[in-house]
Amino acid sequence: SSDLTLSVSCLQPSCFGYPLSIFFIIINEFCERFSYYGMRAVLVLYFKYFLQWDDNLSTAIYHTFVALCYLTPILGALIADSWLGKFKTIVSLSIVYTIGQAVMSVSSINDLTDQNRDGSPDNIPVHIALSMIGLILIALGTGGIKPCVSAFGGDQFDDDQEKQRSRFFSIFYLSINAGSLLSTIITPILRAQECGIHSKQRCYPLAFGVPAALMAISLVVFIVGSGMYKKVQPQGNIMVQVSKCIGFAIKNRFRHRSKAFPKREHWLDWASEKYDKRLIAQIKMVLKVLFLYIPLPMFWALFDQQGSRWTLQATTMDGNFGAIQIQPDQMQTVNPILIIIMVPVVDAVVYPLIKKCKINFTPLRKITVGMFLASLAFVAAALVQVQIDKTLPVFPTAQQSQIKVINLGTDNATINFERELQPVTVMSMKSTDYMMFEASKLQLTITSGNKTTDEFITLPGGTRHTLAVKNNETEIAVKWLLDNVTSKPEEGNNLIRFINNLPDPVNITMGDVSFEPLWPLSGSDYKLFPGGREDRITVITNSMTCSVISKAFGFGSAYTIVINECSEDRLNVTHSEDIPPNTVHMAWQIPQYFILTCAEVVFSVTGLEFSYSQAPSNMKAVLQAGWLLTVAVGNIIVLIVAGASKLSEQWAEYVLFAALLLAVCIIFAVMAYFYTYVDPNEVEARLDEEEKNKVKKEQDVYEKQAEADSQM
């Protein structure tokens, strides 16, 4: 990279053997990848929390979008090679891309349709329509320029600059990972900010707006370098030629299907009437590799769930890393960080060690190991999910109801339920866990001190209630509170409410949130607070103010705080836990990310290298298209499997994916066992030799003919 900086300081178009135009292309790629991965990092949470979709729909739309991003490169390559040329294709599709990112940013502005200013959009369909338009434009843009940018960079070098060209590709891949790493760290931080005109919300417009701005910068940088680029004219697309040749072979074979025609060695040989021998030989090599690609999509089906299922898994975990607070979508950064570390380690340490052990670690074996590791990563994810499920609270079904008892008095209280249920004794200032009942009428007898009272309640299905009991001087005071919470708070937030156990009305503030005035023995509604922090509780009663710091709340919990005493600046409160916080730490996701990254290093890097080594150089575009197609199909597999499997448990879905990949891995291992490696250069050399001999033969025949003619 020092060569790069030097080449910029020299103001000629080329310096130290590098074309200056390369600098613009690398900056362009960095900004574009930052834009794409930044937007993709927060996408699934935007679907879930802003558009209010459930986990399954969010996952489905996310994978549909990723699949589209990997289908459009084929379109981009065709446009560039057959019509516009690479430069014009990159510019025009980057404009589409920038518009898409801007539309996405606008779609996430809360105040766009929030007429009543309550903090949530009133017209969700408008936001959905805008974000779908944005995503389609982004998929067209990012996919369309994907095959062009690296090839356009390669075009800038002369034939004698092979060394510089290969170093350019290394720097190019580094810029991709740097862009993806930085954006996956930065955009979740932007998303976690509070912003808005009328009400403060999670800042999605900023999280999508910064990638949009970087895409615009990327476009400007690319156009600024325009005068220095070497622009190769479109040569026609090899994929079109390949498709025509295959089509002709099939048609011709079908025409000559009767026994009268002699069989040919390979079905592609039926194209020899129209296409030359060299093209047919090259296509045979390509088809051999593409046949091996058939099982590969299953790997991508698992790999791309980092941005969907694994991010949703992180939302139910504890992200407190001491001094720093990790957002669920930031866990995805583990992948690019590990990639930057692992690629050199694997190349410099692991592969040489395997070689020393006299193991022939062929490319196809590496790919098989990659698939096996990815399925292992999903087993790890399933184990983490099982631990998370153990900590999730049980909520009542439509036929059930739950009751929790809080004793606000100084005496112990005993509650007797009808239907021979065990009586429950609650100590002073303590509470029970939620108890499950069938939804119906319920009669209770409450005894505290020397007093007894009876209570009747009708329990509607699917609800939770809190029964507050207090033994006064004259009677047992009873208060029923409806706990309007039937799911764990999202995004690691906490729900807090208060019960006033003082004889006078109180005004309560916690942090900068004010609660409604509370009468004696009444409860407030729950309010949302960010996770992982403590706040100051301030109570004003009878013109006396007292305050105390609350306990440190975790993530995803709900608490009832009882105000017991307020005297001369001293506030006495008790905390009662309604929903336990997330206790499984996000660090437990690191093993699954580590295994999956190891899988990616041996699978992805090897896959492309192997493809290029097994096919002639002019067919690289066809193989790249095939490779990207496997990613697209992989994302479609997620849609099919997640849609078809009616598994209610998330861990079971992880195990299902792991099992499917393991099965595919075994099939691939068998296919790889029967594969014979070829050297395209040898095949080309043989064809050259045959052509030379053919020309020589024709020459001899012609000379003999001429001799015979002259003798006559």
From TrEMBL:
What is this enzyme's catalytic activity, as reactions? glycyl-L-glutamine(out) + H(+)(out) = glycyl-L-glutamine(in) + H(+)(in); L-alanyl-L-aspartate(out) + 2 H(+)(out) = L-alanyl-L-aspartate(in) + 2 H(+)(in); L-alanyl-L-lysine(out) + H(+)(out) = L-alanyl-L-lysine(in) + H(+)(in); L-lysyl-glycine(out) + H(+)(out) = L-lysyl-glycine(in) + H(+)(in)
Q: Name the keywords, alphabetized.
A: Cell membrane, Glycoprotein, Membrane, Peptide transport, Protein transport, Symport, Transmembrane, Transmembrane helix, Transport
Spell out the Pfam families in the cross-references. Answer: PTR2
Q: Where located?
A: Apical cell membrane; Membrane
Q: Which CDD domains match?
A: MFS_SLC15A1
What the protein does comes down to: Electrogenic proton-coupled amino-acid transporter that transports oligopeptides of 2 to 4 amino acids with a preference for dipeptides. Transports neutral and monovalently charged peptides with a proton to peptide stoichiometry of 1:1 or 2:1. Primarily responsible for the absorption of dietary di- and tripeptides from the small intestinal lumen. Mediates transepithelial transport of muramyl and N-formylated bacterial dipeptides contributing to recognition of pathogenic bacteria by the mucosal immune system.
**Protein name in the entry:** Solute carrier family 15 member 1
Q: Which organism is it from?
A: Ibidorhyncha struthersii
Q: By which gene is this protein encoded?
A: Slc15a1
